[in-house]
Amino acid sequence: MKKELAFIFDLDGVIVDTAKYHYLAWRNLANVLGFDFTEEQNELLKGVSRVKSLEILLSIGKVNLSEAKKQEFLLQKNKEYLEYVNKMTSEEILPGVNDLLNFLELNDIKYALGSASKNAPLILEKVGLLNRFTAIVDGNDVSKAKPDPEVFLIGAKKLEMKPENCVVVEDAIAGIQAANAAKMISIGIGDTNVLHEADYVFKDLTAITPDFLKNIMN
Ligand code: BG6
Ligand code: MG
Protein backbone atom coordinates (compact mmCIF):
# COMPACT_ATOMS: atom_id res chain seq x y z
CA MET A 1 0.00 0.00 0.00
CA LYS A 2 1.63 3.20 -1.18
CA LYS A 3 -0.43 6.26 -0.43
CA GLU A 4 -0.93 7.11 3.23
CA LEU A 5 -4.64 7.60 3.84
CA ALA A 6 -6.87 8.35 6.80
CA PHE A 7 -10.61 7.92 7.14
CA ILE A 8 -13.28 10.24 8.52
CA PHE A 9 -16.64 8.63 9.21
CA ASP A 10 -20.02 10.28 9.53
CA LEU A 11 -22.04 8.74 12.39
CA ASP A 12 -25.80 8.78 11.76
CA GLY A 13 -26.60 6.51 8.81
CA VAL A 14 -23.00 5.23 8.43
CA ILE A 15 -22.01 3.76 11.80
CA VAL A 16 -25.51 3.46 13.31
CA ASP A 17 -29.04 3.84 11.98
CA THR A 18 -30.21 6.66 14.24
CA ALA A 19 -32.15 8.33 11.39
CA LYS A 20 -35.21 6.29 12.44
CA TYR A 21 -35.07 7.75 15.97
CA HIS A 22 -34.61 11.31 14.67
CA TYR A 23 -37.62 10.66 12.43
CA LEU A 24 -39.86 9.42 15.24
CA ALA A 25 -39.02 12.42 17.42
CA TRP A 26 -39.49 14.98 14.61
CA ARG A 27 -42.75 13.32 13.50
CA ASN A 28 -44.07 13.51 17.04
CA LEU A 29 -43.28 17.21 17.14
CA ALA A 30 -44.97 17.74 13.76
CA ASN A 31 -48.08 15.95 15.06
CA VAL A 32 -48.09 18.15 18.18
CA LEU A 33 -47.97 21.17 15.85
CA GLY A 34 -50.89 19.75 13.85
CA PHE A 35 -49.36 18.34 10.66
CA ASP A 36 -47.99 15.06 9.32
CA PHE A 37 -44.33 14.34 8.50
CA THR A 38 -43.46 11.49 6.13
CA GLU A 39 -40.34 9.33 5.85
CA GLU A 40 -39.67 10.85 2.41
CA GLN A 41 -39.68 14.33 3.95
CA ASN A 42 -37.31 13.04 6.64
CA GLU A 43 -34.67 12.54 3.90
CA LEU A 44 -34.36 16.35 3.86
CA LEU A 45 -33.10 16.31 7.45
CA LYS A 46 -30.26 13.82 6.96
CA GLY A 47 -26.89 15.35 7.77
CA VAL A 48 -28.55 18.64 8.67
CA SER A 49 -27.99 20.30 12.08
CA ARG A 50 -30.68 20.19 14.75
CA VAL A 51 -31.57 23.88 14.43
CA LYS A 52 -31.74 23.71 10.61
CA SER A 53 -33.84 20.53 10.85
CA LEU A 54 -36.46 22.39 12.91
CA GLU A 55 -36.51 25.20 10.33
CA ILE A 56 -37.13 22.66 7.53
CA LEU A 57 -39.83 20.89 9.56
CA LEU A 58 -41.62 24.19 10.30
CA SER A 59 -41.50 25.18 6.63
CA ILE A 60 -43.03 21.80 5.66
CA GLY A 61 -45.88 22.40 8.14
CA LYS A 62 -46.06 26.12 7.26
CA VAL A 63 -45.83 26.93 10.95
CA ASN A 64 -44.33 30.11 12.41
CA LEU A 65 -42.96 30.05 15.94
CA SER A 66 -41.36 32.58 18.28
CA GLU A 67 -37.67 32.11 19.09
CA ALA A 68 -38.61 31.03 22.63
CA LYS A 69 -41.01 28.37 21.34
CA LYS A 70 -38.39 27.09 18.88
CA GLN A 71 -35.90 26.66 21.74
CA GLU A 72 -38.55 24.83 23.78
CA PHE A 73 -39.35 22.43 20.91
CA LEU A 74 -35.65 21.81 20.17
CA LEU A 75 -35.16 20.72 23.78
CA GLN A 76 -38.31 18.59 23.68
CA LYS A 77 -37.28 16.87 20.43
CA ASN A 78 -33.80 16.10 21.75
CA LYS A 79 -35.20 14.78 25.02
CA GLU A 80 -37.40 12.33 23.14
CA TYR A 81 -34.54 11.38 20.77
CA LEU A 82 -32.27 10.66 23.76
CA GLU A 83 -34.85 8.26 25.18
CA TYR A 84 -34.20 6.08 22.10
CA VAL A 85 -30.44 6.67 22.18
CA ASN A 86 -30.19 5.65 25.82
CA LYS A 87 -31.56 2.21 24.91
CA MET A 88 -29.00 1.64 22.12
CA THR A 89 -26.50 -1.24 22.29
CA SER A 90 -23.69 -2.59 20.09
CA GLU A 91 -26.36 -4.58 18.19
CA GLU A 92 -27.24 -1.36 16.40
CA ILE A 93 -23.83 -0.95 14.78
CA LEU A 94 -24.51 -1.18 11.05
CA PRO A 95 -23.23 -4.15 8.96
CA GLY A 96 -19.59 -3.94 7.88
CA VAL A 97 -18.55 -1.28 10.40
CA ASN A 98 -16.58 -3.52 12.75
CA ASP A 99 -14.86 -5.37 9.88
CA LEU A 100 -13.82 -2.10 8.24
CA LEU A 101 -12.50 -0.61 11.50
CA ASN A 102 -10.60 -3.84 12.19
CA PHE A 103 -9.05 -3.73 8.71
CA LEU A 104 -8.00 -0.08 9.15
CA GLU A 105 -6.44 -0.82 12.54
CA LEU A 106 -4.58 -3.87 11.20
CA ASN A 107 -3.13 -1.70 8.45
CA ASP A 108 -2.26 1.25 10.72
CA ILE A 109 -4.74 3.53 8.97
CA LYS A 110 -5.99 6.26 11.31
CA TYR A 111 -9.65 7.18 11.46
CA ALA A 112 -11.81 9.89 13.02
CA LEU A 113 -15.48 10.72 13.41
CA GLY A 114 -16.92 13.78 11.66
CA SER A 115 -20.57 14.20 12.67
CA ALA A 116 -23.11 17.03 12.81
CA SER A 117 -24.61 15.50 15.94
CA LYS A 118 -24.08 17.03 19.36
CA ASN A 119 -25.02 13.60 20.74
CA ALA A 120 -22.21 11.78 18.89
CA PRO A 121 -20.00 10.91 21.93
CA LEU A 122 -23.01 9.55 23.85
CA ILE A 123 -24.12 7.39 20.89
CA LEU A 124 -20.58 6.02 20.40
CA GLU A 125 -20.41 5.24 24.09
CA LYS A 126 -23.78 3.43 24.00
CA VAL A 127 -22.68 1.17 21.12
CA GLY A 128 -19.20 0.60 22.59
CA LEU A 129 -17.18 2.44 19.92
CA LEU A 130 -16.16 5.59 21.82
CA ASN A 131 -12.56 4.55 22.39
CA ARG A 132 -11.84 3.29 18.89
CA PHE A 133 -11.63 6.65 17.11
CA THR A 134 -8.33 8.57 17.11
CA ALA A 135 -10.34 11.81 17.07
CA ILE A 136 -13.97 12.85 17.34
CA VAL A 137 -15.35 16.01 15.76
CA ASP A 138 -19.04 16.58 16.44
CA GLY A 139 -21.76 19.24 16.34
CA ASN A 140 -20.28 20.92 19.41
CA ASP A 141 -16.97 21.62 17.63
CA VAL A 142 -18.16 23.39 14.50
CA SER A 143 -19.57 26.81 13.74
CA LYS A 144 -20.60 25.95 10.18
CA ALA A 145 -22.75 22.91 9.36
CA LYS A 146 -22.29 20.50 6.43
CA PRO A 147 -22.15 21.17 3.40
CA ASP A 148 -19.45 23.46 4.81
CA PRO A 149 -16.20 21.42 5.00
CA GLU A 150 -15.31 22.66 8.52
CA VAL A 151 -16.13 19.39 10.37
CA PHE A 152 -13.89 17.33 8.05
CA LEU A 153 -11.07 19.87 7.94
CA ILE A 154 -10.92 19.85 11.75
CA GLY A 155 -10.92 16.04 11.56
CA ALA A 156 -7.97 16.05 9.15
CA LYS A 157 -6.06 18.42 11.42
CA LYS A 158 -6.70 16.21 14.45
CA LEU A 159 -5.46 13.18 12.46
CA GLU A 160 -2.45 15.24 11.30
CA MET A 161 -3.27 14.41 7.69
CA LYS A 162 -3.57 16.55 4.56
CA PRO A 163 -7.20 16.87 3.34
CA GLU A 164 -6.36 15.22 -0.01
CA ASN A 165 -5.21 12.11 1.89
CA CYS A 166 -8.50 11.79 3.79
CA VAL A 167 -11.39 9.55 2.78
CA VAL A 168 -14.84 10.60 4.01
CA VAL A 169 -17.63 8.04 4.42
CA GLU A 170 -21.05 9.73 4.37
CA ASP A 171 -24.73 8.93 3.77
CA ALA A 172 -26.03 12.48 3.27
CA ILE A 173 -25.84 14.73 0.21
CA ALA A 174 -24.72 17.65 2.43
CA GLY A 175 -21.92 15.45 3.83
CA ILE A 176 -20.66 14.43 0.37
CA GLN A 177 -20.66 18.09 -0.66
CA ALA A 178 -18.70 18.95 2.51
CA ALA A 179 -16.12 16.23 1.75
CA ASN A 180 -15.77 17.42 -1.86
CA ALA A 181 -15.42 21.04 -0.70
CA ALA A 182 -12.63 19.87 1.63
CA LYS A 183 -10.93 18.25 -1.41
CA MET A 184 -11.15 14.82 0.22
CA ILE A 185 -12.04 11.48 -1.39
CA SER A 186 -15.79 10.99 -0.86
CA ILE A 187 -17.52 7.65 -0.38
CA GLY A 188 -21.32 7.73 -0.34
CA ILE A 189 -23.30 5.07 1.51
CA GLY A 190 -26.75 4.66 0.01
CA ASP A 191 -28.36 5.26 -3.37
CA THR A 192 -26.13 6.14 -6.36
CA ASN A 193 -28.82 8.43 -7.79
CA VAL A 194 -29.07 10.42 -4.58
CA LEU A 195 -25.32 10.51 -3.85
CA HIS A 196 -24.14 11.06 -7.44
CA GLU A 197 -21.69 13.77 -6.34
CA ALA A 198 -19.62 11.19 -4.42
CA ASP A 199 -16.39 9.75 -5.87
CA TYR A 200 -17.63 6.23 -5.01
CA VAL A 201 -21.00 4.92 -3.79
CA PHE A 202 -21.70 1.67 -1.92
CA LYS A 203 -24.93 0.29 -0.53
CA ASP A 204 -23.38 -0.26 2.91
CA LEU A 205 -19.99 -0.71 4.56
CA THR A 206 -19.82 -4.44 3.79
CA ALA A 207 -19.21 -3.40 0.16
CA ILE A 208 -16.02 -1.47 1.05
CA THR A 209 -13.69 -4.43 0.55
CA PRO A 210 -9.95 -4.73 1.30
CA ASP A 211 -9.40 -4.91 -2.49
CA PHE A 212 -11.16 -1.57 -3.01
CA LEU A 213 -9.13 -0.01 -0.19
CA LYS A 214 -5.87 -1.34 -1.64
CA ASN A 215 -6.85 0.15 -5.01
CA ILE A 216 -7.45 3.67 -3.70
CA MET A 217 -4.16 3.54 -1.84
CA ASN A 218 -2.22 2.76 -4.99
C1 BG6 B 1 -26.76 14.39 11.81
C2 BG6 B 1 -28.07 13.75 11.44
O1 BG6 B 1 -25.76 13.42 11.88
O2 BG6 B 1 -26.88 15.05 13.07
C3 BG6 B 1 -29.18 14.79 11.45
O3 BG6 B 1 -27.97 13.17 10.14
C4 BG6 B 1 -29.23 15.47 12.82
O4 BG6 B 1 -30.41 14.16 11.16
C5 BG6 B 1 -27.86 16.07 13.14
O5 BG6 B 1 -30.21 16.51 12.82
C6 BG6 B 1 -27.81 16.74 14.51
O6 BG6 B 1 -27.96 15.75 15.49
P1 BG6 B 1 -28.24 16.03 17.02
O7 BG6 B 1 -28.03 14.67 17.65
O8 BG6 B 1 -27.23 17.04 17.50
O9 BG6 B 1 -29.63 16.54 17.16
MG1 MG C 1 -25.35 10.78 8.24
Structural class determined from secondary elements? alpha/beta
Strand content: 5-15%
Could you say which overall geometry the principal axes of the C-alpha atoms support?
globular
Number of strands: 6
- Low-pLDDT stretches are none
What is the CATH topology of the largest domain? Rossmann fold
Q: What is the CATH class of the largest domain?
A: Alpha Beta
Helix-strand pattern, N to C?
A: EHHHHHEHEHEHEEH
Q: In the CATH hierarchy, what is the architecture of the largest domain at level 2?
A: 3-Layer(aba) Sandwich
CATH superfamily of the largest domain: HAD superfamily/HAD-like
Mean pLDDT: 96
Report, as a whole number of angstroms, the end-to-end distance.
6 Å
Domain count = 2
Number of helices: 9
For the largest beta-sheet, the strand count, sense and barrel status come to:
6 strands, parallel
Describe the strand arrangement of the main beta sheet, using strand numbers.
Answer: 3-2-1-4-5-6
Q: Helix coverage percent of residues? A: 40-55%
**Which molecules are bound in this entry?**
6-O-phosphono-beta-D-glucopyranose, magnesium ion
